[in-house]
Structure to design on (153 residues):
């Protein structure tokens, strides 16, 4: 969507949306990086090393249990209060994505229907129709209230 938006004249209307999207994406990417590369990968290598020296199944099971315990703790998944907050943030991100998909899909449908009605529309004309539709959606009070809710949750 972002690449097609470059040709549209909706940057002013969609500024808060793109800023919020960027913040959410940054958060999820940083969390993902932290969990995978700062916690899981080094603990995995440590466990592999211990498993190579294990002489019994009990040692294998103990090493695996230790790995799981460390990963859960260091990924911040053992603190219930923190886990609830993290879960809420991720749900908000998912809800935001769903809402944005609806907005863009509705606008695509509107543009497609309009272009079918007006067959001799240039590419620039098509984007003008789409831009007007998007600006109308992004400028409405209901949409602005929704974006503000996401920003301050």
């Amino acid at each position: 969507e972002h690449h097609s938006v470059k040709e549209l004249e909706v940057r002013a209307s969609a500024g808060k949306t793109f800023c919020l999207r960027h913040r959410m994406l940054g958060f999820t990417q940083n969390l993902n990086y932290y969990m995978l590369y700062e916690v899981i990968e080094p603990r995995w290598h440590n466990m592999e090393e211990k498993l190579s020296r294990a002489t019994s199944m009990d040692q294998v099971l103990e090493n695996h249990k230790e790995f799981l315990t460390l990963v859960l703790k260091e990924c911040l998944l053992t603190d219930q209060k923190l886990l609830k907050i993290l879960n809420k943030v991720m749900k908000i991100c998912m809800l935001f994505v769903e809402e944005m998909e609806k907005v863009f899909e509705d606008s695509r449908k509107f543009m497609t229907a309009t272009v079918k009605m007006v067959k001799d529309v240039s590419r620039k004309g098509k984007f003008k129709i789409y831009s007007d539709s998007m600006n109308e959606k992004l400028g409405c009070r209901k949409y602005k209230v929704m974006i503000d809710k996401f920003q301050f949750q």
